Amino acid sequence: MATGNGVTNEIKASALDLIGETPIVALDRLYTGPGRILAKCEFMNPGASIKCRSSLHMIRKARESGELKPGAPVLEVTSGNQGCGLAVVCAVLGHPLTVTMSEGNSVQKATHMEALGAKCVRVSQVEGTYGNVTSADMKAVKAKGLRLMDEMETYFVNQCSNETNVEAHYETTGPEIWRQTGHHVDAFVATVGTAGTFTGTSRYLKEKNPKLLSFVVEPSGSQPIKEKEITKPELLKLEYMNGTISVTDEETVKYKNLIGEKEGLYVGYTSGANVAAAVKLLQSGKLPEGAWVVTTLNDSGLKYTPASKD
């Protein structure tokens, strides 16, 4: 915005204006070819993860529809990053936020949310250990969240079933990638939690380039999407998926470390999985020579203790 004296004013109105428009970096030191890996730096969002995008969009849409009144409380079930993103948005917009999260998720995420004014209710683990949150643990977290919803008048974000989660990435992540790459994207790979990032981004990119291939990244030994079990994320739309790529824990840690050692970026575990999958895809022969694969660096490594991989 230009001021009266002709000087451009680049002051942002709030932290909400820091969400999105993250840069894309070429991981040319980590991977030298054939082809190229381009990574979108989502850890640069104010909540230090890609979940800031959906947090802002879901809250804005709820306010626009009247489901969320000004100043009304917000509730969510989280493994951490969505809670951190919501904490940013709710702090700026003036909504008290309560989240439920497993005690197995990293304490750094709880500290982050609480520093922004959120209330983080830690739920005891059923069978997992710190850094290893199981499906049973997450069911307990969700059950606690639903009990709280019954006890208080609050807006439940419900990220796993909220279609505006997908919409956030269709309207922001996908268009940004398309523009930043100069309309050159051959493939997109991403891990899935809610599947909002994968579905929204893939849908947009495939509309722009029908030949683009999109792959879901799955942990080796646990591939519910490939096997099409009923446990697949509700927001995952199979028509936008060309296949899955399996990545082991060892590969995830290897590439997480390489992103730091070769590219100077300290990121979380899903970022390592994404890059490991991108390397596998480029080496598979499924893409044309010189293909560009885009993925996301989902969050900061500062969100985790060394033993934590949630």
TrEMBL record:
One of its GO terms (biological process) is cysteine biosynthetic process from serine. The lineage of its organism: Eukaryota, Metazoa, Ecdysozoa, Arthropoda, Hexapoda. Its cofactor is pyridoxal 5'-phosphate. InterPro entries: Cys_Synth/Cystath_Beta-Synth (IPR050214), P-phosphate_BS (IPR001216), TrpB-like_PALP (IPR001926), TrpB-like_PALP_sf (IPR036052). Residues 17-298 form the Tryptophan synthase beta chain-like PALP domain. This is Tryptophan synthase beta chain-like PALP domain-containing protein.
